[in-house]
Amino acid sequence: MGTIRTRYMSGEDERQYMIGEDYEIYEKRGAPTGATRIHHHDFYEVIYVMEGEFSSLVDNRTYHLKKGDFLLIPRNVMHNYHYVEGKHERSRRIVLWISKGMLERLGDGEMDLEGCFPEGGDCAYHFPLHYEEILRNLLVKAVMTEVPDLNGAEGKRIFDKAQLMLFFLYLNALCAGDSFYFAKEESVHHELVQKVNEYIEAHMSETILLEELAEYVHMSKYYFLRRFKELTGLTVHSYLNNKRLIRACEELKKGIPVGEVWGVCGFMDYSSFLRNFRKEYGMSPTSYRAYLEQGDRQG
């Protein structure tokens, strides 16, 4: 194919949201020094390691990826980059962000292309070389800034959608079985984060005290706070707040009235809910509901 130019995102870029509504795809190199905060988003994320190594904490497990590995991150799951000294400076990877609506349109009502993104299970894969090369070639074509003999931005966008449709068709077929999951030694399970998640999910609508969480995981309060921050990069309070906001988005999608959502998600009052929602998503819950309804009409 010769020298190709790709859409490129600097490792210093802090952006963790899509500018477009459908999908974005980039090549990234080196350690991502700008986007290290634990976060979540309402779109799917695919990371493919082309060269070197890369590590990421997803929910309660840290995955150590090598060349050829894929990481498939579901919507609204807490995750962040996990730095390993001396390992990631030569990393090269393709990062794909894609919305639920876009996957539905690519499937055209005939196939569920979201099935490759796990719910609560492992999300890293290492496929046999033949299949990896097929997936790699489709992603590389989509990340290219231009294609020879293909004129115009619209033509390139249609070409990209075709590559992504084929990519997700292959990916879902490969992920349907459990043959290509990571070996256990290639990832680290964090029981502490899992237990905290379990407790938060079970008591979401209640006031959750730090003392209660520490007792649940059988640690002293101050050791628990320090250890949790070491694993996730977030304070327990910030992590809990993010989990409540994720649940709020889910409830709004179900059609629960905005005036009831704050109580279901455990916020002290509506003003606290509104302030935190605006800070995280840049819009009010009412505007978010309108955004969802607009997307449903367009879909």
From TrEMBL:
Superkingdom of the organism of origin: Bacteria
SMART domains reported for this sequence: HTH_ARAC
Domain HTH araC/xylS-type residues, every copy: 194-291
Alphabetized PROSITE patterns for the sequence: HTH_ARAC_FAMILY_2
Keyword annotations of the record: DNA-binding, Transcription, Transcription regulation
Secreted recorded as keyword: no
Stored SUPFAM superfamilies: Homeodomain-like (SSF46689), RmlC-like cupins (SSF51182)
Pfam families, per database record: AraC_binding (PF02311), HTH_18 (PF12833)
Keyword flag Phosphoprotein: no
Any GO MF annotation of the entry: sequence-specific DNA binding
Name of the molecule in the record: AraC family transcriptional regulator
